Amino acid sequence: MAVSLPNGIVLALANAYAAPIAVTAASNGAEAVLTVANALVAGDYFEFTSGWSRANGRVFRVKAPTPTTIVAEALDTTSTSLFPIGSGVGTIRKINAWTQITQIMGCTSSGGEPQYQTYSFLEQDFDSQIPTTTSAQSLALEIADDPSLAGYQALKNASQSRNPTALRATLPAGGFILYNGVFAFDETPSLTKGSLMAVKAGMALQGRPVRYIA
User: Where are the beta strands (DSSP E) in the chain?
Assistant: First the structure.
């Protein structure tokens, strides 16, 4: 049993990607093995575009690379009903560089709640529910206003591009959370007397976050 505070979390935005590399095969197993013309090393991060909808648009870490394969750490594709054999091919994009977002005043998550289908049969006098999907998830960041900061400019560029961009949260107790999504950025600062001027950024997630405990 453990509890944690968010104090000390470091958020960084991907600001440079390598050219996409074709994934010609993807295995089913406790950790998926991707067949690629590999130039990545252990510990690199990459965005995975795949025919597997549960892996598509997510960011993973490289494990056990060889000249022709990489392991997508923590991508469990054991279930062939969720990850059909032969459907995992696609591309990967290595993240070449990160820019820290500094002066963050707060970061909150919304969405991700389970959704349900309610049903009842004619012979029943009660309703039942089964889970269906989870609601769309987003992050909201509030940042002390300073346009000269590299993180400010990286958020601005990501927002203008409208391309999915990775966000890495480095946790003070160890481990990482990896997000991937489309950014929006409001450069107009808040102007409340006696309070810090702040700007807001939002991230609409395009895939489930990936968490590594170390």
Answer: 10-17, 21-23, 25-26, 33-35, 45-50, 58-63, 69-72, 90-101, 104-110, 114-119, 128-134, 138-144, 165-170, 176-186, 198-205, 210-212
